[in-house]
C-alpha cells in the first residue's frame, strides 16, 4: 500500500507576476525549489490564500535569488501579483517510509527570501 504525503512546501509566498500569454506552469525562484525539494517539471498544488483558489500545475525554475513566483498561462487568472500562495508537492511512499517521513517546509518573508526551513508543522500555530 502507498500513501500520498506532503513532500515539500513553500509557505506564504507572494505572487510577483502573472503572465496569461505564457504556455503554462508556475515559475519559482530556483533557491526556493531547491530548499523545498521540488524538482523542475514536478506537479504541484497551489493554494491562493487571497481568493481560495486551489489548482495544480508544474514548476519551472526562475532566477536564483530573484524571489520570483509567476503564474503562467491559464493559472494567471487564478492569482494576481501581491496574492499570498502556498506551493506544495506530494510524494508516494510505502507505509514504512511514510511513518518516518518529514516534509520540507520553506518559510519565506514578504520578498520570497528564505526565512526558515522546518521539517514539521506545529499544531495551532501561525507561521
Automatic annotation (TrEMBL):
Keywords: Autocatalytic cleavage, Cytoplasm, Decarboxylase, Lyase, Pantothenate biosynthesis, Pyruvate, Schiff base, Zymogen
Keyword check for GTP-binding: no
Catalytic residues in the record: 25 (schiff-base intermediate with substrate), 58 (proton donor)
SUPFAM superfamilies hit by this protein: ADC-like
Function, in words: Catalyzes the pyruvoyl-dependent decarboxylation of aspartate to produce beta-alanine.
Subunit structure: Heterooctamer of four alpha and four beta subunits.
Protein name, UniProt field: Aspartate 1-decarboxylase
Species of provenance: Neisseria montereyensis
Amino acid at each position: 500500500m502507498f500513501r500520498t504525503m506532503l513532500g515539500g512546501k513553500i509557505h506564504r509566498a507572494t505572487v510577483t507576476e502573472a503572465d496569461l500569454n505564457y504556455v503554462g506552469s508556475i515559475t519559482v525562484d530556483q533557491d526556493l525549489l531547491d530548499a523545498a525539494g521540488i524538482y523542475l517539471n514536478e506537479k504541484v498544488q497551489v493554494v491562493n490564500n487571497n481568493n481560495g483558489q486551489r489548482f495544480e500545475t508544474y514548476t519551472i525554475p526562475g532566477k536564483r535569488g530573484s524571489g520570483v513566483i509567476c503564474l503562467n498561462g491559464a493559472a494567471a487568472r487564478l492569482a494576481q501579483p501581491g496574492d499570498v500562495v502556498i506551493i506544495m508537492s506530494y510524494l508516494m511512499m510505502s507505509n514504512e517510509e511514510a511513518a518516518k517521513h518529514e516534509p520540507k517546509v520553506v518559510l519565506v518573508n514578504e520578498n520570497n527570501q528564505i526565512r526558515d526551513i522546518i521539517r514539521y508543522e506545529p499544531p495551532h500555530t501561525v507561521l
